[in-house]
Amino acid sequence: MSRELFVLTYGALVAQLCKDHEADEDVNKYLDQMGYNIGVRLVEDFLARSSIKKCRSYNETADIIAKIAFKMYLGITPSVICSKESGNEFSLVLDKNPLVDFVEDLPVGRSSLCYSNLLCGVIRGALEMINLPADVQFIQDRLKGGDVTEIGITFLRKTDDKKHRRNK
Amino acid sequence: MSRELFVLTYGALVAQLCKDHEADEDVNKYLDQMGYNIGVRLVEDFLARSSIKKCRSYNETADIIAKIAFKMYLGITPSVICSKESGNEFSLVLDKNPLVDFVEDLPVGRSSLCYSNLLCGVIRGALEMINLPADVQFIQDRLKGGDVTEIGITFLRKTDDKKHRRNK
Questions:
Q1: What is the pLDDT of residues B42-75, one digit of tens each?
Q2: First to last CA, chain B
Q3: Is residue A43 assigned to a domain?
Q4: Among A40, B8, B32, B139, which lies 20 to 30 A Cα-Cα from A86?
Q5: Rounded to an integer, what distance in angstroms lies between the CA atom of residue B47 and that of residue B44?
Q6: Which helix (H) or strand (E) holds A42?
Q7: Where in the cell is it found (chains A, B) (predicted)?
Q8: Is B2 within 8 Å of A72 when comparing Cβ atoms?
Q9: Cβ(B109)–Cβ(B29) under 8 Å?
């Protein structure tokens, strides 16, 4: 399947939310929330297709998101940077963000819009379903003049806590 | 690229429109209009990728929509039925509609919703850009209890008129 139809449909969704909500912050929040709901469902599909059973570290998890999940669903492979010594903060660096393929600039008067914020929600929702709560947000965005597009993932539990995780 | 992310994002778009508009008719109209705007842009991508130069008949056009465009953007190939002797009415019959992959039923109280109406708009917009104005709508929908999902395309000009078409 080619991604143009998806990218244009996503643009229609963002435009609709901008029409509905005056504040960029609200649009960002809705995109994140929609993404979350999508991630919660998408993770099953991902686990089934990828046959991945378990990640042994945050590092491996971030790698799988970039190299398998992004590749599978968006056709790109961001590079992964472990940004802190703590070992629970990572950046996915996208040279090219397919979601903005047809977007030149942010809509007028929408300078705080996180256009692709759905992606953060998707990652957050999917991670939460496998008991890896995380904070996910854009750190840089080419649409806002950044050199690259960068998504930050901060895993919210220490690795040691993982043995205590609930089975749900 | 796998289509699950697209299908779930589309679901989020429909849910958002249902939240915004009480009447199913309004949601259908917005989906069609969004699809139209998408089709107007998608057609360039389609012509570039498919290297199709010209269709010699409505029949050939309907065939290309089903066998090349649907395949390219949705990964399915509907069958094409020429439904009238007039030669300008066609049906695309979808055994499986990927847009409803994760949808069991129409939302409660939304019995007149044309869930996948975006597709009609996309086809209409794309055809209009190549000077083939058409009326495009769902004739049957499995989500509404139809045996199959069927999209009707009625080309609005007689074949004879094609020689008069404008270059724009």
A1: 999 999 999 998 889 999 999 999 999 999 999 9
A2: 33
A3: yes
A4: A40
A5: 5
A6: helix A24-50
A7: Endoplasmic reticulum; Golgi apparatus, cis-Golgi network
A8: yes
A9: no
Alpha carbon A87 to chain centroid, angstroms:
19
Residue range B16-48, pLDDT digits in tens: 999 999 999 999 999 999 999 999 999 999 999
Strand order from edge to edge, sheet including B89-94: B79-82, B89-94, B149-155, B134-140
**Domains identified in chain A, total number:** 1
Distance CA B65, CA B50 (A): 11
Report the complex ipTM: 0.87
A73 contacts chain B (CB < 8 A): yes
**Is B161 domain-assigned?**
no
Rg (CA), chain A: 16
Global confidence as pTM? 0.89
B49 part of contact set with chain A, CB < 8 Å: yes
Domain that holds residue B44: 3-155
Contact list, B3 vs chain A (CB under 8 Å): 1, 6
Any A CB within 8 A of B20 CB: yes
Residue B66 placed within a domain: yes
Calpha distance A61→A50 (Å, rounded):
13
> Which of chain B's residues have a Cβ under 8 Å away from the Cβ of A6?
1, 3, 5-6, 9
Place of tokens 């020429």: B82
What b/e string do you get for A109-124 counting C-beta neighbours within 10 Å, with b at 16 or more? eeeebbbbbbbbbbbb
Dist CA B109 CA B126 (whole Å)? 32
Residue A112 forms contact with B (CB below 8 Å): no
Please indicate if any CB of chain A lies within 8 Å of the CB of B45. Answer: yes
Best of B3, B7, B8, B77 to mutate (most A CBs within 10 Å, chain A): B8
What confidence tens digit (pLDDT) does each residue in A25-44 have?
999 999 999 999 999 999 99
CA B67 – CA B76 distance, rounded (Å): 8
A85 part of a folded domain: yes
